[in-house]
Amino acid sequence: MTEAWPQVGGPRNRSALLTAAAALVGADGRNGPSAGTLAMVLGRGWDRRTGSRSRQQLQLAVITEAGRIFDEEVVQPARAAPAGLGQLATVCETFFGHLERHSCPGGCFMASAALEMGTPAGPVDDLIAALQAQFGQLICGFAAAAVARNELPAGEDPGRLAFELNGIMLATDMNFVRHKDPAVLDLARQIVRQRLGVASPT
């Protein structure tokens, strides 16, 4: 039997609380939030004594919500861009915009999880790994479309390019969170534009 969620005011409040928890988990790390953070977010509706099963269920729900936020802010705008190079440039820009808006206080949850995750060892790590793999495949698909449309050199390897761009995004997240300097985002944007051969926005 599926364990019931804490009674915190119904589905609308659950969604709002998950959004808040998804923001907090970026600061607490992928294995958070801590019991103290959960108690703060959920108030009396969260019982610290419910044990690891409830904690894991909430972690999975928080990761799912963080994935929804990432999809809404980063993935969907990129999918809506012109196919090929337009999507490839947009997915990088929407990622940088996601950081710039401080959607999660600890930076991009997905990037932070990628930097922290070791060998998957359970449902939480499995879900994170699946979300990361989906994003990598998305970038690779955009790159392959750009090559097919002759917007990139015929010899360009989509998988390698996706790896490079994903690495740039991870490094940008780490440095932006650490230094809180908008110049990090400016530099990242310049690097991506140079790598893709696209003009700076006017």
Give the key terms.
mainly alpha, disordered N terminus, globular, 70% helix, 8 helices, Tetracycline Repressor, domain 2, 202 residues, 0% strand
Task: Give an overview of the whole structure.
The protein is mostly helical. It has a domain at 59-196: Tetracycline Repressor, domain 2 (Orthogonal Bundle). It is built from 8 helices and no strands. The chain is globular and about 50 Å long. 34% of the residues are buried.
- SS element count, helices: 8
- Output the helix-strand order: HHHHHHHH
**At the fourth CATH level, what is the homologous superfamily of the domain at 59-196?**
Tetracycline Repressor, domain 2
| Proportion of beta-strand residues | under 5%
- From the alpha carbons, calculate the radius of gyration and give it in angstroms: 19 Å
Compact description:
The chain has 202 residues and is mainly α.
Write the SSE topology.
Elements: H1 11-28, H2 35-42, H3 52-79, H4 85-100, H5 109-116, H6 123-148, H7 158-179, H8 182-196
